[in-house]
Amino acid sequence: MIDPSLPPSPNPPAPPEPPAAAAQPRASAEDASSQALSEALRSSFAIVKFLMAGLVILFVGSRVFTVHPDETAVILRFGRPVGVGSQQYLAPGLHWGLPYPIDEIVRIPVGQSLTIVSTAGWYPTRPEWEATGQLPPAYPYLQPGIDGYTLAADGNIIHARATLKYRILPEQAGQYVFGFASPTNLLQNLLDNSLIYASTRYRADEAIYRDKLAFTERVRERLLELLDHHRLGISVDALDVETSAPLDVRPAFDEVLNAQQVARTRLSEAESYARSATNTAIAQANAIHIDSLTRSNEIVKTMAAEARSFQDQLPHHQANPQLFRQRLLLETMGRVLTNAQEKYFLPQRADGQPRELRLQLNREPQKPVPTR
Amino acid sequence: MENHPRNPVTFVTAGLLLVIFILMLFAFQVRTTEVAVVTTFGRISRSLTEPHLYFRWPWPIQSVYKFDNRVQNFERKFEETTTRDAINLLVTVFAGWKVADPERFLQSLNGDPLKAEQNLEPLIRTAKNGVLGQTLFSELISTNQAELKFNAIESQMLASVQSQARETYGIDVLFLGLKQLGLPQSITTKVFDRMKAERQTRVRQFQTEGERDAQIIRAQADNLTRKTLADARATAIEITGSAEAKASEYYRVLQQNPDLANFLFQRNALEQALKDRATLILDQQTPPFSMMQGTPATSTNPPARR
Q: Are residues A118 and A216 located together in one domain of the fold?
């Protein structure tokens, strides 16, 4: 390409040979295209370098990670935990590790409450049935492998289900994650084992209702013992144990409960009667005792008073017995007639014959009941 | 030709790539959950049980076999077995095992965990049947806890598996336990019948015992009531008797004139008896109405009422 701004050459150029004259503009054109290509490549390299630098920064930056409040993390450097003992567990916050494959970050959910349910001893059910309290159909037999159950100490069959809520211990989290290929399966097996261990020690009635608390406690004891032995690195938050009679036998269990309840009611009534009767008797005995004391006191005092009165009246009587008696009798009759509610006087018949007296005795009239 | 100056970034990048390539060929990691065996031309040259970065000659000179070193869970479904007293039981066991000898594990099982479990299964089954075959049903399930040998049974099964698994397969069986106990389906029907019959017996027992106990309680209460009242009455009689005895001391005074004493007693008795709501029917013989003797009366008139 010829720049038109350049000054003209003092020597007029020789007329180009026809082929060379044709190659000159072609060469110029190739130079220009090479230059353009070179510039394009140069700019492409710059972009690639920029991208690579970005990738390197991203790669290095990707090793910056956050440990959340409900978890801890362990850095495995060349496969080995960084740090010893509790120092290997990273606290929540921002941390940095070397790029993979040098470092591997293993997160462990130590703060979360995890749940395991042992259903090896429970009848088959569905979540929607559980929600509505619906029970599966009852059959007069149980199919091994389909119907879960366990055996009680008296050889009876019972259903038992345990729900364990647990947390991974922060200071033993590595044992839980790196020590066991499937810690949840192991935990479920230990829970199953604890259930049948306890069930072989309790009668069906005891495990289902009479001593359910002790049964649950036995399951817990066994589980804690196993967890301690296997060093699974967890802590138990809660353990709930449900027990039930086989569905086909449940009505028979209910009848026992009803009969037991009736018997308890009878006993309760009898005890109530006994308490009432005893208390009444004690009250009556006290009343009799007090009454006897009062009466004895009265007898003695009355007799003493009578004696004193007699002593006082004796001289008057001795003076004129007839008059004394008549006076006392009339005084007494006066008081009696004054106090009497009803008095009838029967005058003597004119013919001197005795009167015939007829009395009609009625019940005492009932008192009127006040109306509301 | 023009010599362009080499870019140092290019050198570094190339160097890094070379190092990575060489490391990929010559180095490997053993994770904390793994053990590894290194073979040289197919022959075992070393076992690695500590997690770290190790070096090796590249394939085909050396090969690295890594195995999961964590405790593996083993369990199978219900299997029927018979106790020493010929009771059929369905038992599920679970076990935990891990690679103890990586070289033997590789040689005997080709380092395959699935094969390990397939070979472990008959061992455990034999141990389970052997131990339970020597066990009475009452040693496994009983109301008498002194008879139970639950832990001993599990320990015996574990002991009979451990040595063979270790020597033959390089596997360490760490624990073995019972996961489920059951009965054959036909037996469950009989157990249900027995359970129903037992419950009926309990129902009758509760009914009769409840009635009996209630009657006993009532009878005891009645007896106690009668005894309490009888005691109280006896005491009252004693108290009254002693009072009467004391009162009789005053009779000496009355004996001065018994006729007057009787008269006074009768007067008091009369007054007491007619004190409340009394109805008196009197004739002319009764003083003071005796004063009215001789007064004529008509037969048609009713008795006068005051």
A: yes
Number of compact structural domains in chain A: 3
Q: Do A317 and B235 touch (CB under 8 A)?
A: no
Could you tell me the maximum CA-CA distance found in chain B, to the nearest angstrom?
Answer: 188
The reply to whether residue B225 touches residue A281, judged by beta carbons under 8 angstroms, is yes
Instruction: Identify the residue among B192, B275, B298 best suited for mutation to test binding to A, counting A beta carbons within 10 A and taking the highest.
Output: B192
**Are A235 and A151 found together in one domain?**
yes
Range of the structural domain that residue A189 is part of = 114-125+143-248
Residue with tokens 């199978």: B76
The amino acid occupying position B223 is: N
pLDDT at site B276: 77
Q: Which residues fall within 8 angstroms of residue A294, CB to CB, at 6 or more apart?
A: none
Chain A residues with CB-CB distance to B246 below 8 A: 299-300
- CATH pick for B72-183 out of 3.30.479.30, 1.10.357.10, 3.30.450.30, 3.30.70.100: 3.30.479.30
In a domain, A161, yes or no: yes
Beta carbon pairs, A and B, within 8 Å: 362
Residue A270 resides in a domain: yes
State pLDDT tens for residues A153-184: 999 999 999 999 999 998 889 989 999 999 99
Shared domain check, A219 and A195: yes
What are the chain A neighbours of B239 within 8 Å (beta carbons)? 289, 292-293, 295-296
Confidence class for position B305, pLDDT limits 50, 70, 90: very low
Asked if the Cβ–Cβ distance from A274 to B34 is below 8 Å, we say no
CB neighbours of residue A367 within 10 Å: 6
**Residues of chain A contacting B183 with CB distance shorter than 8 Å:** 144, 151, 157
**B39 vs B33: CA distance, rounded Å:** 20
pLDDT tens digits, one per residue of A215-247? 999 999 999 999 999 999 999 999 999 999 999
Residues A86 and A197 in one domain: no
Q: ipTM of this model?
A: 0.73
**For residues B291 and B87, which has the higher predicted lDDT (pLDDT)?**
B87
Tell me the C-alpha to C-alpha distance, in Å, between residue A127 and each of A98, A135, A161, B16: 45, 11, 15, 56
Same domain? For A225 and A160 the reply is yes
Helices (H) and strands (E) counted in chain A, each on its own, are: 8, 10
